[in-house]
UniProtKB/TrEMBL annotation:
PANTHER family: OLFACTORY RECEPTOR. Residues 41-287 form the G-protein coupled receptors family 1 profile domain. Its main location: membrane. This is Olfactory receptor. The lineage of its organism: Eukaryota, Metazoa, Chordata, Craniata, Vertebrata. Belongs to the G-protein coupled receptor 1 family. One of its GO terms (molecular function) is G protein-coupled receptor activity.
Amino acid sequence: MKTENSTVVTEFILLGLTQSQNIQLLVCVLILLSCIIILPGDFLIILTVRSDPGLTAPLYFFLGNLAFLDASYSFTVAPRMLVDFLSEKTVISYRGCITQLFFLHFLGGGEGLLLVAMAFDRYIAICRPLHYSTVMNPRTCCALLLVLWLGGFVHSIIQVALILRLPFCGPNRLDNFFCDVPQVIKLACTDTFVVELLMVFNSGLLTLLCFLGLLASYAVILCHVSGSASEGKSKALSTCTTHVIIILLIFGPAIFIYTRPFTALSADKVDSFFHTVIFPLMNPVIYTLRNQEVKVSMRRILMDFIIRSHEGEILAENHSLI
C-alpha cells in the first residue's frame, strides 16, 4: 500500500438510501418529524438539567451530556439527508466527507463510552449505595467525561489518519447516504486489506467492548435487584430491562457493520439508517422520560415559560392601549 496521499478525487457522489421515490419520501418525512419533535426535546433536557438546582446527581449530569451528544450526532447525518432528498445531484466534497466521517465516529465513540459510564453509575447507586457519594463525586464525573471525549477523539482520529493515507483516483460513487469507513475504503485505488483489519480492530473492538461492558453491568444490576426485597425493585427492574433493550437496538447494527470485513450487504444501508438517524434521536427520550424527577422539572420549566409568555403578551397589550 502506498504511504503517500495521491488523491485526485475531489468529491464523492452519494447514491443515497434507495432509488425508490416513495421510500425516499417516507424516509424524508420520518427524519423531518423526528428532528421537529425530538431534537427540541434534547435541548429541553439540557436546559432542565442545567437550570434545576435539584438535578445535581451524577445521573442527571450524564443525561444532559447524553442529550448533547445525541443531538450533535444526529446533526452530522440527518440534515444532510434532508438536503440531498431535495437535490438532483447528491455530491459531497472530499474534505466534507472526511469531516463528516470524523465527527460521526468522534461523537459515536464518545456516546458509547458515556453509556458505559452511565451503567457504571447505576451499578454503584444500586449495588453499592453506601459508597455512592464517595465514588461518584464531582471529580470522578468530570474525569469520566474527559475520558469519554478523549476516547472518542482518539478513536475517530485513527480512522481519519488511516483513510487520509489512501489514494483515491476513481470511481467516486459512494454507495450510501453519508460518508462512513466501509464504503469510503472500498473506493481506494490500492489494496486495503491491512487497513480494513485495522479499522475492524479499531471500530469493531470499541463497539464490542462497550456492548459487553454494558451487558455485564446491567446483568449484575438485574441479579442484585432480583435478589433483593427493596421497595423500588420493580421500578429498577423495569428501568434496567428497558436500558438493555435500547442497548441491543443501538449496538446491534454497529456491531453488524464494524466487526466484519467491509463487504457490501443489502442490509447495510438499513442498519446504517437506524444506527445514525433513528436511535440517536430516540435514545435521550427513552432514558429521560422514565425518570420522574426530570419529567416534573421539565413540566415546571415549560409552565414557567408559558406563564411568562402570557404575562408578556398582557403587558404588551396594556402598553399598546396606553
